[in-house]
């Protein structure tokens, strides 16, 4: 398994955000987490990305425990993410925002820094810019590459945030409601990009999403959380047939997705 979450619990004061949650994600899998508001979905992503440290349990990535590894070091081992609320640098261009996502790949060793900047800086910058151009082409945002991020529509800004997360070149990318607030056409485009990242680029995806039609169409497996506890996980069709899930969480949306 690429990712193993083992009996993770998390609380804030007297509120239990996660209760003894366990699940695993295989390499190159597209794994979705669903559930009602307040179910603990974002809290789980925050534990994986290092923003929160669990009260108990363990999270293992490629067999390595993430205990004690700070959030700013998790991109170094191949974990990237987007946020439910956009976290772009609004005053910077699209190109500059995506380049920020490459920062942890740049060489900055103090002892070799002077020699590096004499001989290798220009070459490295060209390599990073080529990688960013590939992402821009892939996500079809060539026409806004020099636009200031804060001037873009919400749907385009969400696409730029995905581009920045992909620029980390992660083995695992965590997507927190990547389609929230989008119209139908924008959702279809985003779903296609996520599937292509998974299938063509080989990225493992853990995604939170409320659109049940999208979740059931593109996910390999789905986990349901409620009140911080795992209800069920399995293949999309298995989750859809779970009576508890149908009655409590999917409701009318399930019929629309079916």
TrEMBL record:
Per the UniProt record, one Pfam family is BCA_ABC_TP_C
Has UniProt tagged this entry with the keyword ATP-binding? Answer: yes
Q: Name one GO molecular function term.
A: ATP binding
Annotated Gene Ontology cellular component terms: plasma membrane
Q: What is this protein called?
A: ABC transporter ATP-binding protein
Residue span(s) of domain ABC transporter: 3-252
Reply yes or no: does the keyword Coiled coil apply: no
Whose protein is this, by species? Oricola thermophila
Q: SUPFAM superfamilies in the record, alphabetically? A: P-loop containing nucleoside triphosphate hydrolases
Q: Which residues form the signal peptide?
A: none
Q: What keywords does the record list, in alphabetical order?
A: ATP-binding, Nucleotide-binding, Transport
